[in-house]
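Sanity check

After download, print the first record. It should look like this:
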Amino acid sequence: MSHRVIVVCSAVVLALATVLVAPSFLKAQGQQGQRGQQGQQVQGQGVGQGLPNAQGGRGGGRGGRGNQPDVPSKPTPRWPDGHPRIGAPTPEERGIWGACCGSLSNATTPYQPWAKALYDYRRNNEFEPHTRCKPSGGARQFVTPYGTEIVELPDLQKIFIFDIGGPHTFRTIYMDGKPHPRDLVPSYYGDSRGHWEGDSLVVDNTGFNEGFWMDRAGSPHTEKLHYIEKFTRTDYNTLKYEVTVDDPGAYTGTWSNSFQMRWQAGPELFEYVCQDNNFAPVLLIGNESSIDRSSVIIP
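Expected structure tokens:
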């Protein structure tokens, strides 16, 4: 009789253990499987917060395609005059372009010696002006975890570029055919003048100050910077970004690079509060053992 009681009790204990443990085990297995699937989908796709991969960015992160699977893209949306829409495909649709362009420069970039030394220093001590709520011209405008919204207003002959994760700033591209104003006061975004060359929007930029990084890696520039961008929407989901850098103050010759941004339908521009006490301490103070905070930082 006692043996049967022991057997029955053991069976009850085993059953209870199975009921209690199985859900946690299955949940853990499901999470592992989900992470594995996401990892396979993210690899080599879309754009995120970091340096670009072969297809224009590192997967994941806000503003990129993240773990969305590849689907055949629709044709390039166009305005009635035939020019591609580089912003929302229709007046009713909302969306943003995912981040791109971690670093413009590479091993072949023709640095002047002082510019290369400064670039190397910035790679180890990233005193990022962007993290101190300063606007960022050039490709750096397209590198925030929240993506970029482009608004086209043909009637006003203007295009606006909003970097969502920036310090409440935007850039204006003038499409009226007028040249750059004389005696420009150097600024973070400079003066942008755009025109169409076939299906590509070409933007000529000049009048920059030296208070920002023109890319996420900290490629140097001077007030002599002449920055030419080309935006080409090759299909519904892809915006090719090409840039030519001409800055005789920092480089021994002109140089170019290109990347891609991916369309993410749905998200809209939202209020982003840029504050000094953020979550990027290395970008604020670099890797130095101490930093002088006696000077006032004003965007």
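If your output differs, re-run the checksum step. Summary of this record's structure: The chain is about 20% helix and 20% strand.
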